[in-house]
Amino acid sequence: MLNKTPLWKTLMVILVIAVAGLYALPNIYGEDHAVQISPDRNAVIDSTVLLNAEQALADAGIKIKGSKFDADSKQILIRLENPDQQNQARETIAAELGNKFIVANNLAPDTPEWLKALGGEPLKLGLDLRGGVHFLMEVDMNTVLKDNLQSLRDELRRSLRIEKIRYRTVEVEGNSVSVLFRDADMLSLAESFIKRTKPDVVVSESGELTLKVVFSELSLKETRDNAVKQNITIMRNRVNQLGVAEPLIQRQGPDRIVVQLPGIQDTAYAKQILNATATLEFRLVDTEHDVRDALNGRVPPGSILIDNDKTGRPELLVDTIALKGSHIVDARAGVDENGRPQVNIKLDSEGGAQITAFSRENVRKPMATVFIEYKPLPERDENDKPVFEKIQRVISVATIQTTLGQAFRITGLDSPGEAHNLALLLRAGALIAPIQIVEERTVGPSLGKENIELGQTAILYGLVLVLAFMLFYYKKFGLVANAALLANLILIIGVMGLIPGATLTLPGMAGIVLTVGMAVDANVLIFERIREELREGRGPQQAIHHGYDSAFSTILDANITTLIAAVILFGIGTGPIKGFSITLAIGIITSMFTAIVVTRVIVNNVWGGKRVTKLSV
């Protein structure tokens, strides 16, 4: 019999729409204005901090909607009943807790717990809708080159010594490493060895018995690209570790990075996250020379003085770096067998090989963990690039008890809070090069709210006009198309809610408005084809059957071409264009499903298999 839909297909359509509706549901609950409390360096956060914050708010007469301490992320979230209380609450909590904690305004979804348990979360909103902060950051490539030259210097010293090629000095000079030899035979052996083992450098003779080693242009380009890419990855990890949701972090030009943090209203807090350009180095303590001589200005060659964070006195360290923090892939705070705080470190394979070789030669010798951060200076260099001051301090000194491998531990820390924060920094990653904020913009939540309201109004007006036209022109079949159109909107929101990382922006809302208009095109083609079949004298059942079958190829061709355009826009477009193309592509796919499958199921269940003499179309 014509126009009969199997029960399984009807149930499938109901299930798909129900699931999409479930994951679109969180968007009706909105968000609470909240205050977020995070630990600063060396601070411990627990339920006692939450109790102190709640008591301070109660004393100030500020009523809270709810509060929660998340032990995993080490953060406290206090929800407030209205936005007017947010700034007052933040100032009250900050005054109560002091500078050991980061107290920042935030927005928290008000989704019920049962819906969260099912994975339901509201749509992530972009900076133009939610408000937040925008930074344009510049990577200091001079520091990248300097660090790579120092690594090349240390590697040449090590490899030449292993090959028993005698040299006088290996030093960094400008943008190259200069190697001075004892005689011409050693120079010739070294030149041949370096060319054979290091294809990324160019070797040339420079002066008597001296080799000049520089990185090739291809190697420098790869270094710059890798520095930006690794900084983007590490910054994204760091922001995620600190609980900032839905960040946009992407490259702009050869050495700049765009960072957008939707929902963050505290610019100072965002800067603190992003300017934490810290890293670690592990160096051997110089026990062969007297530190007092170094303090009097007689620093021995191959050693440096670095202040100790704990004792307040400088430590004399070997200048050669045993291991860089960039090799750390995981770090977890814990305690040793005596209950003292420690950080358990896991390295990548290259770092594991380095620390194994180093520690095997230096068992029973003290090794220092050096914390390094870069602070931007107000001036810029001759190329108009940022200038940074390098600040180093020793945070722990521990004796190497045995040969270390890919996993080892840092001891000598003062508190569990210090261990937790150090592990957090290492786990998030150390930036390959320091960065400087060259542009800063704040989008207020009121502007984002206005954009949302205008977008919702546009969608509502467009929806109402389309619904009214379809109902007036196609009568009962127009009612079917309207039901499919509403189902299409539910599907778009539900599918976007299921896509990890999907963000709704103002251009994305424009894509939804366009989809509302385009979604009925397929139904117009089908209904007009049914009318043609009726005018040619076919019966209602035959008209419905041929109307859907004949219009299918036209609908498919039209939507595939538009989908191809959306994919191209996504592939070559920037942020706003990508947002538009995503909602457009999703809308095209869901509109085909609702126009062809959903309406056919409704039509078949209402008119199919019955003696119908007239269709209201």
From TrEMBL:
Top-level taxon: Bacteria
Presence of keyword Transmembrane: yes
Chief subcellular location: membrane
Keyword Cell inner membrane: no
Keyword line: Cell membrane, Membrane, Protein transport, Translocation, Transmembrane, Transmembrane helix, Transport
Domain named Protein export membrane protein SecD/SecF C-terminal: residues: 435-604
Gene3D superfamilies: 3.30.1360.200, 3.30.70.3400, Multidrug efflux transporter AcrB transmembrane domain
Cell compartment(s), UniProt: Cell membrane
Domain SecD export protein N-terminal TM: 2-104
Residues annotated as transmembrane: 454-474, 479-499, 505-527, 548-573, 579-603
Membrane topology classification: Multi-pass membrane protein
InterPro entries: Acrflvin-R, SecD, SecD-TM, SecD/SecF_arch_bac, SecD/SecF_CS, SecD_1st, SecD_SecF_C, SecD_SecF_C_bact
Domain SecDF P1 head subdomain: 309-433
Domain Protein translocase subunit SecDF P1 positions: 228-286
Its job: Part of the Sec protein translocase complex. Interacts with the SecYEG preprotein conducting channel. SecDF uses the proton motive force (PMF) to complete protein translocation after the ATP-dependent function of SecA.
Quaternary context: Forms a complex with SecF. Part of the essential Sec protein translocation apparatus which comprises SecA, SecYEG and auxiliary proteins SecDF-YajC and YidC.
Family: Belongs to the SecD/SecF family. SecD subfamily.
Protein name: Protein translocase subunit SecD
Source species of the chain: Pseudobowmanella zhangzhouensis
Annotated gene: secD
